[in-house]
């Protein structure tokens, strides 16, 4: 849920007329749009879904059809809402009209009048204006596709007292978090979850252009660089290799923070000094709470002394180069470490929230590295799986998740094999397609096992559905179970039932090696089913078979 209290004002009539205006045309209500910063949309069927007096919905007090007052009915509604203020002669300098658009995420679809009525009443109670006269008007999907209502409140109550709006934004955000969790809606900006919610402008720009928001791109690149680095210098070199411009924040000669931007192509990895549309620059904390520099440094050993700490500044100002990529055969080592991690994860207790959530976080970081390496700038299933795993890690994080290791410089590590695999994958040459598929198959099984062992209600904040979403994104890479009936909850999902012919024909593996074209899953798997030295066209692998890569 996206809530945005707008500036108070005095013109209740203008607001009510706007909210009920049918067929809003481009250019109309320009002042309203400019002042209140929400996108213009056609009001196909604006109507009342809730009010301080339920009889308003029956059309008994207003002229016109129920919940859809005509112009005379709208004037009567303004008079009804404003009558307590006029009765007591109250004139509020800051304005007596309070306006809050409330929108669902576009992926949540249309919620319906009954649900919106419930939510409007809850929002009024959360803000603390239930003693005032208010209405909630449905507008439907806006330009970004978000179903939404508008809450209009006259702030002078029935007793002549003015409602207090202290901390209204915080109260609305807390209420929205609770609604998202209770109704399993898309999390837009969960308090304390780590992820920074996208702004409305970012959502709309992404929807219009089809390009992933820069904030998410930068967050993934920074996370992948941190997960694949052995120290702070490697982290900086990895970002430089991805053309990410990093600037340190220095206090008393020490680096205490950073900001990143991804300059346009052709600028040599540096943001242009003069540009009509400068690159978006964000601090680490604006990407996610766990991407601040102090939190990132928990990945790496600390400097040996103050001299070494001060020397880090030179690396920040002039990042070094990554070492030459090691041989692609090292991806065999990645497979070995992933198999060890899969076995270790199978021994974890899902009820141990601290260790379980750490394992999910480590898995998410590995998948971020693989997404950046294998899909690069073409977001696909790996990118979506990484985002879902990060959601699961944040939503399932215990409130005191750092209490057990807060006195230690390093964060807790549960599956060190994943960190090792991430570092090797980050610095190895591009893998052969067969090796890439073998690695993805192990990762898909690991994520599937985590999802099926965690019930939806086992962790706070509904992390289970996010884990299942990640498993679904990787389903095409998961080997077919020998007994589909015993494959667990996800096997019932038609998208994950083994159907090799259809799945192999449709699935894609995005291995972007030196500009090579994207290759279908079948063309990559076929060589795995043949014995070395055989080239017969009739020598085809069994459907769903997997042969271990040497």
UniProtKB/TrEMBL annotation:
Protein name as catalogued: MobA/VirD2-like nuclease domain-containing protein
InterPro entries: Endonuclease_MobA/VirD2 (IPR005094)
Polar residues: compositionally biased ranges: 534-550
Ranges that cross the membrane: 432-451
Region of interest (Disordered), ranges: 479-550
Bias type Low complexity, positions: 483-495
Keywords: Membrane, Transmembrane, Transmembrane helix
Superkingdom, taxonomy of origin: Bacteria
Coiled coil: none
Domain spans labelled MobA/VirD2-like nuclease: 94-183
């Amino acid at each position: 849920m996206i809530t945005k209290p707008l500036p108070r004002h005095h013109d209740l009539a203008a607001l009510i007329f706007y909210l009920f205006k049918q067929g809003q045309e481009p250019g109309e209500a320009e002042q309203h749009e400019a002042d209140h910063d929400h996108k213009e949309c056609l009001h196909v069927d604006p109507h009342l879904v809730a009010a301080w007096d339920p009889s308003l919905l029956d059309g008994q007090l207003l002229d016109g059809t129920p919940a859809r007052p005509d112009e005379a009915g709208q004037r009567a509604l303004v008079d009804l809402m404003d009558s307590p203020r006029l009765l007591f002669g109250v004139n509020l300098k800051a304005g007596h009209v309070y306006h809050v658009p409330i929108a669902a995420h576009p992926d949540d679809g249309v919620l319906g009048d009954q649900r919106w009525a419930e939510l409007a009443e809850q929002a009024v109670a959360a803000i603390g204006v239930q003693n005032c006269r208010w209405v909630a008007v449905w507008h439907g999907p806006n330009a970004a596709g978000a179903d939404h209502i508008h809450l209009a409140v006259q702030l002078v109550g029935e007793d002549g007292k003015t409602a207090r709006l202290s901390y209204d934004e915080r109260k609305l955000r807390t209420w929205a978090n609770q609604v998202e969790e209770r109704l399993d809606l898309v999390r837009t900006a969960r308090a304390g979850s780590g992820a920074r919610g996208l702004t409305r402008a970012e959502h709309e720009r992404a929807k219009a252009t089809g390009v992933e928001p820069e904030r998410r791109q930068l967050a993934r690149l920074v996370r992948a660089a941190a997960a694949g680095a052995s120290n702070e210098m490697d982290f900086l070199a990895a970002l430089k290799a991805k053309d990410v411009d990093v600037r340190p924040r220095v206090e008393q000669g020490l680096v205490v923070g950073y900001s990143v931007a991804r300059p346009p192509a052709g600028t040599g990895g540096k943001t242009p000094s003069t540009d009509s549309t400068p690159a978006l620059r964000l601090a680490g904390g604006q990407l996610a709470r766990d991407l601040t520099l102090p939190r990132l440094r928990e990945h790496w050993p600390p400097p040996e002394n103050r001299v070494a700490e001060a020397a880090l500044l030179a690396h920040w100002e002039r990042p070094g180069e990554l070492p030459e990529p090691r041989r692609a055969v090292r991806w065999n080592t990645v497979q070995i470490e992933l198999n060890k991690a899969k076995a270790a994860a199978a021994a974890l207790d899902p009820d141990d929230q601290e260790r379980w959530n750490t394992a999910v976080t480590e898995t998410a970081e590995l998948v971020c590295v693989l997404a950046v390496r294998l899909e690069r700038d073409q977001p696909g299933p790996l990118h979506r799986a990484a985002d879902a795993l990060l959601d699961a890690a944040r939503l399932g994080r215990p409130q005191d998740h750092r209490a057990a290791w807060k006195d230690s410089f390093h964060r807790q590590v549960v599956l060190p094999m994943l960190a090792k695999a991430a570092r090797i994958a980050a610095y190895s040459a591009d893998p052969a397609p067969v090796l890439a598929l073998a690695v993805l198959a192990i990762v898909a099984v690991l994520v599937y096992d985590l999802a099926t062992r965690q019930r939806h209600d086992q962790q706070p904040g509904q992390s289970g559905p996010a884990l299942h979403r990640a498993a679904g994104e990787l389903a095409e890479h998961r080997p077919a179970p020998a007994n589909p009936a015993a494959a667990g909850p996800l096997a019932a999902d038609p998208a994950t039932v083994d159907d090799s012919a259809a799945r192999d024909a449709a699935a894609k593996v995005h291995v972007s090696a030196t500009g090579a074209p994207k290759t279908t899953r079948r063309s990559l798997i076929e060589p795995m089913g043949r014995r070395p030295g055989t080239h017969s066209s009739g020598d085809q692998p069994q459907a769903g078979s997997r042969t271990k890569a040497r």
